């Protein structure tokens, strides 16, 4: 997996994927998916109760497991485990859906030997079908507390591969590990939340600080990706911090320790968000849009997301066609402050539009750079000095194929 | 061309396409398009100055011809002609773009022997390339004041066919004709305007009433269609009413004459809007979404447009898959008031979701109805008694193909 993180800003080390101190996990196949080669149920466990924080979909049809996890975390902001399944979202399943989510939570808690109020539940897959509880029971019976990474496979749907990252920092002489994994790859247009994302750390976080850290970092990472403009009913990101690294408690403030932690934490969220965008359904290219000289940060974020979310821009990138009028049209659709006579655009650092006129570019050179598997679009709005960033992917025949036949 | 207008509400007659009294037109090929079989420049003319109204794109990068037509109409709300071209949008072309639009207007006005201030200009096609003025001049030289309908071809881009409709009503013993034509078929997500649409009538409209009539009818017609969520830089709808039918002036009020006129006028706009949706780039099906029992009209319109605009819903319809979770997810993404426990959905009148649970439907029957070329989705929000409507199309391989290779 290619790393898209810039080298120069690192105050942390990206290490091979590993669980932080005190975490166990497992993943199994129980028959929820058709392919027995793929895991479809898993869990994650901390030896001690961990501080927990979450962000959740704003879709009004919030799925039962998403609601339940939110309620659970909001009780004491503590979790000791999360149980997960794919292939069935347990969403729009009425009262039975909540009963099933509670049952799944209870079974997992019993097997982990912890209180139900310390266990989150996450489901993803088809909406509107009842959760097959016999398979869920079978899964809990099979799951063990191990050191493997199968849980990172057990949450995937149309994803082509797992999405994982671990970073390490030194705090107070202790090694602190932050590990995250997530799934995409359609119905991706997070609003104050995202698809399933899990970030666990052994860092000791000061009481009450974790939720603020998660919320602020999600805004500039998961909330800035889009695959298809559709917001799922099951989106959530959950973070657990069990404190076993032994560092002094980290506040959400300007201290050196907090900044070091947040830097590494942001890198984990950014990498996972980019991984989702790069592996968007049917995608062949990751698209990153950077906006600069915006009137304010909100404008910059809005324009970045509008460009990366435009079907026409996405199809042109798939076709490797430097059709910049579509980028300009996408910018102009927003209500962001735009200097319509002095907007400039670069594509992989090559000038494409200069002061709202076609830059004198060589079509062959553009075609060549568009054949790369990461496309970076830089937009200068000439309206201030704020910046923003968003990620997405191209729109391809395969996106249509996957979504025309999703249930078959 | 199939008519989607319901039979029972007609207070007007749909007649074979014709120009209303006093209108002349023409369309020619000058080399803007590659295929010499297709017209690429045209115009429309009224023997007497006609009252005029327009609605225009809200894209911040408004094209020169769109700006110029808006300025021209806003002077005295009168037009006598409109000159049009396809294959080049004269958009994001800087100062030269406005100079070229003014020149095109002046040449057409001179040939029509009317004042420049009475001539609108409309361009569509690729963004960002200078208008080839030698070809525009050649076109104006060739255009004549005739009774043919070639102008309805001369505005098309990726459209598969022309989009035209004529209705007739009787007012004060006089026959009044309302004729409209338009083009699609990508970058369609009108906001307070639409792609190019032209509606001409010989009705006599009271001074100052036409703009209000157009604006109110566009809101529930053109503004409720989406093909791909992208708003063009060149969108506009222009209406001309030259009064030659001889009826008494129609006010925009509750009078019988006004209601008869507005009914027929709305039918023209509705048919054109549906034609654009049905002929959306790559589409194989027209999708109509009707929302009922919403808390208010704005909520109903918002939900209708969210469902019809969802890439996932569109791809599922292309795949003829009754994947209703995507419809529910699209509804829940809006901030409309939704009774999340009592939302129901019908597909071509067959129950799909009842009170937020899967209706006990037969997959084979659903598959059969999804093979039709018009798909109607009815959503009951259980939150009030307001209704709304929107139109779109499915998302297909051909949409991707067309837009991956648009400039080639």
Automatic annotation (TrEMBL), chains A, B:
Reaction(s) this enzyme catalyzes, per UniProt: N(2)-acetyl-L-ornithine + L-glutamate = N-acetyl-L-glutamate + L-ornithine; L-glutamate + acetyl-CoA = N-acetyl-L-glutamate + CoA + H(+)
EC number of the protein: 2.3.1.35, 2.3.1.1
Pathway: Amino-acid biosynthesis; L-arginine biosynthesis; N(2)-acetyl-L-ornithine from L-glutamate: step 1/4; Amino-acid biosynthesis; L-arginine biosynthesis; L-ornithine and N-acetyl-L-glutamate from L-glutamate and N(2)-acetyl-L-ornithine (cyclic): step 1/1
GO cellular component: a single term: cytoplasm
Chief place where the protein resides: cytoplasm
Site (Involved in the stabilization of negative charge on the oxyanion by the formation of the oxyanion hole): 124-125
One GO molecular-function entry: L-glutamate N-acetyltransferase activity
SUPFAM superfamilies: DmpA/ArgJ-like
Cleavage, annotated site positions: 193-194
Cellular localization per UniProt: Cytoplasm
Record function comment: Catalyzes two activities which are involved in the cyclic version of arginine biosynthesis: the synthesis of N-acetylglutamate from glutamate and acetyl-CoA as the acetyl donor, and of ornithine by transacetylation between N(2)-acetylornithine and glutamate.
Protein name: Arginine biosynthesis bifunctional protein ArgJ
Originating organism: Companilactobacillus heilongjiangensis
Gene name for this UniProt entry: argJ
């Amino acid at each position: 997996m290619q790393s898209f993180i810039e080298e120069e800003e690192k105050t942390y080390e990206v290490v091979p994927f590993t669980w932080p101190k005190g975490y166990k996990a497992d993943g199994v196949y129980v028959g929820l998916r058709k392919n027995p080669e793929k895991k479809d149920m898993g869990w994650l466990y901390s030896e001690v109760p961990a501080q927990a924080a979450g962000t959740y979909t704003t879709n009004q049809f919030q799925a039962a497991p998403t609601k339940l996890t939110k309620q659970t975390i909001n009780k004491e902001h503590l979790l000791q485990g999360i149980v997960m399944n794919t292939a069935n979202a347990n969403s729009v399943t009425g009262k039975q859906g909540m009963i099933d989510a509670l049952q799944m939570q209870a079974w997992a808690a019993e097997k982990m030997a912890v209180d139900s109020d310390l266990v989150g539940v996450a489901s993803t897959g088809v909406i509107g079908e009842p959760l097959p509880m016999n398979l869920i029971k079978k899964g809990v019976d099979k799951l063990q507390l191990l050191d493997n990474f199968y849980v990172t496979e057990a949450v995937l749907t149309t994803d082509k591969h797992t999405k994982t990252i671990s970073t390490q920092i030194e705090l107070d002489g202790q090694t602190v590990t932050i590990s995250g994994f997530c799934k995409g790859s359609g119905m991706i247009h997070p609003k104050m939340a995202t698809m399933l994302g899990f970030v666990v750390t052994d860092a000791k976080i000061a009481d009450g600080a974790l939720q603020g850290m998660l919320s602020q970092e999600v805004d500039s990472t998961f909330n800035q990706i889009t695959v298809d403009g559709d917001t799922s009913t099951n989106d959530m990101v959950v973070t657990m911090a069990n404190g076993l690294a032994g560092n002094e408690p980290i506040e959400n403030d300007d201290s050196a320790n907090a900044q070091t932690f947040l830097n590494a934490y942001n890198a984990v969220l950014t990498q996972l968000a980019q991984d989702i965008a790069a592996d968007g359904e049917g995608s062949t290219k990751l698209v990153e849009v950077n906006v600069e000289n915006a009137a304010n940060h909100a404008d910059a974020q809005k324009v970045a997301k509008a460009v990366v979310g435009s079907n026409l821009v996405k199809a042109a990138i798939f076709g490797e066609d430097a059709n910049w009028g579509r980028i300009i049209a996408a910018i102009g659709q927003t209500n962001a402050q735009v200097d319509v006579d002095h907007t400039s655009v670069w594509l992989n650092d090559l000038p494409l539009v200069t002061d709202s006129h076609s830059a004198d570019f060589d079509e062959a050179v553009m075609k060549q750079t568009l054949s790369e598997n990461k496309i970076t679009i830089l937009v200068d709005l000439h309206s201030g000095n704020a910046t923003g960033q968003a990620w997405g992917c191209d729109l391809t025949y395969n996106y249509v194929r996957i979504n025309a036949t999703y249930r078959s």
